[in-house]
């Protein structure tokens, strides 16, 4: 009875091991086939090596197989091939597509401003120092009163390039925006150039008011210090001495008396 149970357990273990081996073999087969397909897509014009059968179609005992090059043969799977053909790939750029330059109205295929800032302007019309100059994020926020959300979250999000800080390489990198697009974004935020100027004037007045208030506070403190000093001097100058009893000095034949308030000592002669 015990031997029958042992045989049954061994049979179940063998079945489980056989199942695992089959699953592993299937996974390896799928990987090898995917690898073969990826090589075919990546190098569609690669020359075949006449001295090797790797990747070639073989027919063994009426079954079509592929030499995987890893010591085993892969059965061809038409269904898997069809699934791989359905894999979507990123379409290649349309070489025949032309863009119309906003400046010269001429057609062009590609340009720096188009690739970097989505601005349809050809390289010939690009004005690096003028209309198409760059501005840092800090300057854009200060000059046009923009916030981070106006640049990074408001749609469409403005594109930028990152450059090392020319003043100090150890500082953080700078974000450079297209000046033209910053001006357009400022008009979207403030509605018009007049509103932007009014807001700048209001903030400037507020800033100047804070400076004046701070300056007046310092002047007031300085005046209080001066008045306190003058008060002490005036008090000392207007003091009236109250002398005590006279003391006679036989050696000099003089008299001395001392103020009982401030301690001032005075020596004099009596006629």
What is the topological layout?
Elements: H1 2-42, E1 57-60, E2 63-67, E3 73-75, H2 78-85, E4 99-100, E5 107-108, H3 112-117, E6 134-136, H4 137-144, H5 148-152, E7 160-163, E8 174-178, H6 179-190, H7 193-237, E9 247-249, E10 254-258, E11 265-268
Antiparallel strand pairs: 1-2, 2-3, 4-5, 6-8, 7-8, 9-10, 10-11
CATH class of the domain at 99-200: Alpha Beta
The helicity comes to 40-55%
* Cα gyration radius (Å): 47 Å
Q: State the distance separating the first and last CA atoms.
A: 153 Å
Quaternary organisation of the protein chains: single chain
Name given to the CATH homologous superfamily of the domain at 99-200: XPA C-terminal domain
Q: Which topology of the domain at 99-200 does CATH recognise?
A: Nucleotide Excision Repair Protein XPA (XPA-MBD), B Chain A
Mean pLDDT, all residues:
76
What fraction of the residues are assigned to beta strands by DSSP?
A: 5-15%
Number of H- or I-type helical stretches: 7
Strand order of the largest sheet: 1-2-3
Order of helices and strands: HEEEHEEHEHHEEHHEEE
Number of strands: 11
Structural class: alpha+beta
Low-confidence stretches: 40-49
Q: Return the CATH architecture of the domain at 99-200.
A: Alpha-Beta Complex
> Major sheet: size, sense and barrel closure?
3 strands, antiparallel
Rough outline = elongated
């Amino acid at each position: 009875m015990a031997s029958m149970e042992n045989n049954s357990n061994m049979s179940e273990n063998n079945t489980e091991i056989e199942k695992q081996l089959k699953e592993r073999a299937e996974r390896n087969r799928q990987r090898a086939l995917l690898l073969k397909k990826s090589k075919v897509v990546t190098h569609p014009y690669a020359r075949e090596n006449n001295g090797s059968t790797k990747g070639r179609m073989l027919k063994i005992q009426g079954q079509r197989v592929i030499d995987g090059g890893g010591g085993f043969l892969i059965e061809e799977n038409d269904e898997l091939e069809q699934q791989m053909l359905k894999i979507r790939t990123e379409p290649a750029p349309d070489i025949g597509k032309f863009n119309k330059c906003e400046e010269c109205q001429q057609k062009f295929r590609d340009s720096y401003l188009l690739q970097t800032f989505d601005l349809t302007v050809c390289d010939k019309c690009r004005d690096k120092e003028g209309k198409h100059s760059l501005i840092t994020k800090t300057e854009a926020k200060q000059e046009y009163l923009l916030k981070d959300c106006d640049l990074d979250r408001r749609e469409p999000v403005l594109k930028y390039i990152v450059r090392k800080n020319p003043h100090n390489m150890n500082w953080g990198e700078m974000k450079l925006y297209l000046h033209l697009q910053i001006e357009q974004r400022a008009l979207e935020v403030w509605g018009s150039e007049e509103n932007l100027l009014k807001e700048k004037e209001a903030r400037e007045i507020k800033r100047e008011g804070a400076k004046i208030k701070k300056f007046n506070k310092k002047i007031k403190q300085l005046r209080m210090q001066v008045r306190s000093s003058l008060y002490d001097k005036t008090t000392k100058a207007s003091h009236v001495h109250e002398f005590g009893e006279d003391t006679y000095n036989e050696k000099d034949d003089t008299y001395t008396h001392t103020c009982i308030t401030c301690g001032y000592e005075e020596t004099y002669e009596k006629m």
